[in-house]
Design a protein that fits this description.
The chain is about 45% helix and about 20% strand. By secondary structure, the protein is an alpha/beta fold. A 5-stranded parallel beta sheet has the order 2-1-3-5-4, sandwiched between helices. It has a 3-stranded parallel beta sheet with strand order 7-6-8, with helices on both faces. α8 packs parallel to α9.
C-alpha cells in the first residue's frame, strides 16, 4: 500500500489543492487542509504530513486522528488508503457526498473546485490489495450457508462491504471482539489470512 502514493505526487496534490481552493477564507483561523497518512506509507510521506501540521495514524486511532485534524483544519487530506479514510469518516457522521477521491494520475486529481469546497475529507486513490478482495456477494453467500453467522471486517475493505458486515474495526478490535464472543459463535473475518489463521488456532 505504501507504493500507492509517492512524495512527488503528494507535493503536486498539495499545490493543486491550494489552487483549486483559491482564497476561500477558513473560519476560526484553522488551516485549509490537514494531511493525515496511514502508518503504511513511506517515510517521505510521513515527514511531509508532519511538516504541514498533519499526523500519522493507525487503523486503531484513525477516528480519534480525524477528529483531531478537523479541530485544526477545515478539510483533511487522507492517504494512502481511501477505504480506511472513507469508512472512518462515515462512521464519524460525514456523508459520502462530503468526500472526494483524489486520483494522482488525473489533472487536479479529477476533482473540481465546487466538489472540493463541499468536501470535509479528500481521499487519496489508494487501497490495500488484500482487503479490496472482499465483496458483498461473499458476505451474502456466507449468511446463506451459515445462518446466524457474524461478519467482522477491517476498515480497509470497501465501504459497501463494511455496510454489509455486522461490525468493522482494527486488527486489535477484531481480535478482542471475536475472543469475547460467546462459545459456539460462528464468525467470518474479513482481513489478512495470517490473522484469520491465528484466530482459528486461538479460539477454535
Amino acid at each position: 500500500m505504501a507504493d500507492m502514493a509517492d512524495i512527488e505526487q503528494l507535493e503536486a496534490c498539495w499545490a493543486d489543492l491550494a489552487a483549486l481552493r483559491g482564497d476561500a477564507p477558513v473560519p476560526g483561523g484553522r488551516a485549509p487542509f490537514i494531511p493525515v497518512t496511514y502508518i503504511n506509507s513511506s517515510a517521505a510521506i510521513k515527514a511531509f504530513c508532519g511538516e504541514h501540521g498533519g499526523v500519522v495514524c493507525t487503523s486503531s486511532n484513525a477516528a480519534a486522528t480525524l477528529r483531531w485534524a478537523w479541530e485544526r483544519g477545515e478539510q483533511v487530506v487522507f492517504l494512502p488508503d481511501q477505504h480506511l479514510g472513507r469508512n472512518t469518516a462515515y462512521r464519524l457522521g460525514v456523508p459520502l457526498d462530503e468526500m472526494v477521491v483524489w486520483d494522482p494520475e488525473e489533472p487536479n486529481g479529477g476533482v473540481n473546485a465546487v466538489d472540493l469546497r463541499r468536501a470535509r475529507i479528500v481521499l487519496w486513490k489508494g487501497h490495500c490489495s488484500v482487503h479490496t478482495r472482499f465483496t458483498v456477494r461473499q458476505i451474502e453467500a456466507l449468511r446463506a450457508q451459515y445462518p446466524g453467522i457474524k461478519v467482522i471486517v477491517h476498515p480497509e475493505t470497501p465501504w459497501d462491504v463494511v455496510q454489509a458486515a455486522d461490525d468493522a474495526g482494527s486488527t486489535e478490535y477484531i481480535i478482542r471482539t471475536v475472543k469475547a464472543s460467546p462459545a459456539g459463535s460462528i464468525w467470518a473475518v474479513g482481513t489478512e489470512i495470517h490473522l484469520v489463521g491465528r484466530l482459528a488456532r486461538e479460539v477454535a
